[in-house]
Write a structure and sequence with these properties.
Length: 294
C-alpha cells in the first residue's frame, strides 16, 4: 500500500531516517463531484486518521465532517492569531518560602480568541502540534517572555527567573535549542534569567535526546526544570544524567497534601530526592495556608 511504501528506512549520509504517512480518502462521485469538495472531504478523513494514531488510512464519512471542518477553521484562526498578536502571556509567581520574595514567574500562554474569549494552552496546543504550528508558537512564546523580562529589568524591578513551560515532543530537537538561542540573543536576558520547563512525559519520551538538549541549554546559561514530576515514571538512572536545576511537584499532589498521607509521602520523597541531587524544588499550585505550612 501507499503507507507501507513509506516505511522502509531512508539513508541520508551516515543517518537512517524512518518516515510515516497518514492517508485520507474521498471517493468520486459519492463524496463530491468537484475537486475542491473532494479535497476538503479528504482532509476531513486525514484528520481522523491522525487522531486515530497515524500510519492509517481513513475514508471520508459525513458524521466526521462537521468536527473536522471546525478543527480546520480553528487551525486557520490559530495561524492568524500567531501573526496578528492575539496571543498573550500571563505570569504565575514563584515565591521563595525562605525569604517570602517572588523569585520567579512562569509564563503561561493564552489565546485571546475573538469569539471564544481567553483560551488556555490546553485548548490549542495539541492542534498546534498536529498542524505544524508548534514551531512558530514556541518561537513567539520565547521572544515574548524574554522581551517582558527585559522590560521589567529596564523598569528597575528586581530580576526574577522567567520560566516557560513546554510539553511538545518537538522541544527535544535541535530546532528548539536554536529558537532558545535566538530569543536570548535578541533580548539579552541576564544569565540564568531564563528557565525552560519540560514536562516529565516529554522528557521521558526520549531521555537520550533530553540529555543532549539539557547540556546544550546549560551552555546558553539557561536553566532547566522538569515539570509535573511524579506523574511520568522517570527513571532515576536517567535523572542523574540530566543537566537540570529544578523539579516541579505536580499540582495533583499539592491539592490533597493535607488529606492524603500517601500523596504527602510522595511529596516528601520528591523533595528529599531533589535535595540529594542538589536540585531545588517548586511546589505547583499552592493555594491555602495549610498547603503553604506543609
Amino acid at each position: 500500500s501507499m503507507i507501507d511504501a513509506w516505511t522502509p528506512p531512508v539513508g541520508i549520509g551516515e543517518h537512517e531516517l524512518t518516515l510515516g504517512a497518514s492517508v485520507g480518502i474521498a471517493l468520486f462521485p459519492k463524496d463530491g463531484d468537484k475537486g475542491q469538495e473532494l479535497l476538503r472531504h479528504a482532509f476531513s478523513a486525514l484528520h481522523r486518521a491522525r487522531a486515530d494514531g497515524g500510519g492509517l488510512s481513513r475514508y471520508y464519512a459525513a458524521d466526521i465532517d462537521a468536527q473536522a471542518i471546525e478543527r480546520l477553521d480553528l487551525e486557520r484562526e490559530l495561524r492568524r492569531a500567531i501573526a496578528n498578536e492575539q496571543l498573550i502571556l500571563r505570569y504565575q509567581p514563584q515565591v521563595s518560602l525562605r525569604s517570602g520574595l517572588v523569585v520567579g514567574v512562569e509564563a503561561l500562554i493564552r489565546w485571546l480568541h475573538p469569539t471564544r474569549g481567553e483560551l488556555p494552552a490546553a485548548a490549542f496546543m495539541a492542534l498546534a502540534e498536529e498542524s505544524g504550528l508548534i514551531h512558530p508558537l514556541v518561537d513567539w512564546t520565547l521572544r515574548a517572555a524574554c522581551a517582558q523580562n527585559r522590560a521589567w529589568r529596564r523598569a528597575g524591578l528586581r530580576p526574577v527567573r522567567m520560566a516557560i513551560n513546554f510539553a511538545a515532543r518537538q522541544c527535544l530537537g535541535q530546532d528548539f535549542v536554536d529558537s532558545v538561542a535566538a530569543a536570548t540573543r535578541a533580548n539579552g536576558p541576564d544569565p540564568h534569567g531564563l528557565e525552560i520547563e519540560l514536562t516529565e512525559r516529554t522528557v521521558m519520551a526520549d531521555p537520550d535526546a533530553f540529555v543532549r538538549i539539557s547540556r546544550q541549554l546549560r551552555q546558553l546559561a539557561v536553566s532547566l526544570a522538569i515539570d509535573d514530576f511524579g506523574t511520568g515514571f522517570s527513571s532515576l538512572n536517567h535523572l542523574r544524567h540530566f543537566a537540570i536545576d529544578r523539579l516541579k511537584i505536580d499540582r495533583s499532589f499539592i491539592c490533597d497534601i493535607n488529606r492524603d498521607p500517601d500523596g504527602a509521602s510522595i511529596v516528601q520523597g520528591v523533595i528529599a530526592l531533589a535535595h540529594n541531587l542538589r536540585l531545588s524544588v517548586v511546589a505547583e499550585g499552592v493555594e491555602t495556608e495549610a498547603q503553604l505550612a506543609f
